[in-house]
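Suppose a colleague, Dr. K., hands you the sequence of a protein chain of 251 amino acids and asks what its three-dimensional shape might be. Before reaching for any lab equipment, you can write down a predicted structure in token form. Begin with the sequence itself:
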Amino acid sequence: MENQLAILKESIQEARVQLLAHPVYSKISDLEGLKKFAECHVFAVWDFMSLLKSLQIGLTSVTLPWMPIGSANTRFLINEIVLGEESDVDENDIRISHFELYLKAMHQMGASTKLINQLLSALQNGQSIGEAIAISDIPHQVKQFLQFTFEIAQYAPLHVKAAVFTFGREDLIPDMFNQILNKIYQEHPNKVSTFKYYIERHIEVDGGHHSHLALEMVSELCGQDVNKWEEARIASLKSLKMRAQLWDAIN
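The predicted structure, expressed as tokens, is then:
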């Protein structure tokens, strides 16, 4: 399995490097640029949770009566990731999900949450996810990104979901972005402190401990099945392509 995992990582490396060098990062040079970035990027923060919860639904028992499902190891892996994403702490040590923390950061910097709130309101009013995306005013490429995510979350087999989660949504924040953020923070500390905390927390949790757990999950779900590893590779590449299109939309 370790060999298959190494092969998969090598096959997506070029796409990942290109994504980390995307010109969108260099365009975020001031507070206004950061606001525009956040107004689109928030959709990726939100739909990530649905992808994560779809894995929890598939790998654990979330219906009554409870029955043990799958292996205890994968149950532990996904539940620990959900715990950190759904109920982490903010800069004041208050429990909060990463999505809610992101919204808090947007409010602090003065970024508009109109589009994400419009989508959530449509869902709360009974629209399906497909209908909510279709009637929203969000950019076309953002809609495509969301459609891909929910296609995976709703219909893909578990090993494909795990691969997209692990390789398409892992830490994709280059050092350049951190340098730009530090500069904006120095200029506007009272506007960017929560966003800076979110990014630092994201790198610490998602890019560290959670990424190791996710790799274990992919290995366990693909096992020795060569076809599953190939399906995981194809889906991972597609997810990186969709993220690049999202960055294009923001750029």
